[in-house]
Amino acid sequence: MSADRHPFGDDRVEADVSTNQSHPEATTDAAFKRGVRQMWALGNYAEFAHEFVWDLGPELVQAANVRRGQRVLDVAAGTGNAAIRAAALGAQVVASDLTPEHFPAGRDNARATGVQLEWVEADAEALPFADDSFDVVMSCVGAIFAPRHQRVADELVRVCRPGGTIAMLNFSSVGLFADFLGVFQPYMPAPRPQDLPPPLWGDEAHLRALFGDRVDNVRLESNAYVERAASPRAYCEFCKRTFGPAVAIYAGLDAERAAKLDAAFEAFATMNNRAAEGPIELHYPYVIFTANPVDRAGLAGRSAEPG
Ligand SMILES: C[S@@+](CC[C@H](N)C(=O)[O-])C[C@H]1O[C@@H](n2cnc3c(N)ncnc32)[C@H](O)[C@@H]1O
Fold first, then answer.
1. Ligand 1 binding pocket includes 98 (Cβ within 6 Å)
2. Which of the ends of the chain has fewer CB neighbours closer than 10 A, N or C?
3. How far is ligand 1, taken at its centre, from the CA of residue 145, in Å?
4. Does 107 map to a domain?
């Protein structure tokens, strides 16, 4: 992505709209998604994931109770954090993501683990899979980044068979992730009116409203994981080099604004360090949401136990 590209979309959307008057909303959204994909492809997500979130994949797979032979979809799979762990248990896994630039590293990860899975480019808001295709549909800090939450929830329910399992590992609505986004917020474009922020996916009332009575056995478990770095400065520099959204935001700043953001980011890492000495430790709280889609034909009493 060039330095002048909008970090969460594409400033040239209006030009696209004018060339396709028949479906302006679809065209606008497609241009927005292209910008989002370009943003996530920046940096080195494989390196970021291994350093900070690689322990979360197995946790989600365990919460989803993935078993041998099940058809499993990982939504916004990145480089395969959860998908590869599910495949290692003998499941038939599809790893999907808006950003296929992640897939070569994902394939390397899969090869190193000795598993095979399918990699499919897919928007969490419009999944290219048939109804009821999967026994388990999961997402590890992934689908939360698709801004139309209701569309995402609708798609997760649609592609998961009744009695199957939907499992999401989402950052908590309050806490370090929300604060992290708050540091970058002043440097980001205003969200589109229809878009909701990622931390809302950590809010129980929001989750219940999104999924409604289309799921039962809703469970939420709270936990936290730790990101470590040699110093606040090292933490910031690592994120600036590897984490696509941070790379994109910095690329759009002049030297003065970049220095201001540097100061705010380093203050965030310093203030939130929980370690008394040695490497810094940042504790990111998250929730694991699991639920079972009910039979859409209205077959009451159907077992929610994945079979
Ligand atoms: C923080 S990464 C998480 C990746 C992976 N699940 C993991 O645990 O490492 C967020 C991922 O969401 C993907 N993403 C963002 N918006 C998306 C969308 N609308 N549909 C599908 N994937 C999306 C990005 O490409 C990125 O791979």
1. yes
2. C
3. 7
4. yes
Q: Determine the angle formed by the axes of helices 232-242 and 244-251, rounding to 10 degrees.
A: 90
| Residue at 69 is within a domain | yes
* Number of domains the chain is built from: 1
pLDDT in tens, 150-174: 999 999 999 999 999 999 999 999 9
Structural domain boundaries, residue 208: 25-181+188-226+286-293
Residue 163 contacts residue 295 (beta carbons within 8 Å): yes
Task: Provide the CB-side half-sphere exposure for 243 (13 A, CA).
Answer: 17
Kindly report the protein residue whose alpha carbon is nearest to atom 27 of ligand 1.
78
The best mutation among 99, 102, 180 to test binding of ligand 1, ranked by most ligand atoms within 8 Å of the C-beta, falls on 99
CA distance 94 to 133: 11
Domain assignment present for 270 = no
- Which atom number of ligand 1 is nearest to the Cα of residue 56? 8
CATH number at residue 57: 3.40.50.150
Question: What's the CA-to-centroid distance between 234 and ligand 1, angstroms?
Answer: 24
Please tell me if the CB atom of residue 142 comes closer than 6 angstroms to any atom of ligand 1: yes
Give tens-digit pLDDT for 236-266: 999 999 999 999 999 999 999 999 999 999 9
Residues written for the chain:
307
Phi, psi of 145 (to 5 degrees): -85, -5
This prediction's pTM: 0.91
Sheet hosting strand 71-74, strand order edge to edge: 118-121, 92-97, 71-74, 134-140, 160-171, 280-293, 215-229
Q: Which atom of ligand 1 sits closest to the CA of residue 147?
A: 19
Would you say residue 250 lies in a domain?
A: no
- Contact indicator for 30, 9 with CB cutoff of 8 Å: no
**Each residue of 5-14: pLDDT tens digit?**
334 433 333 3
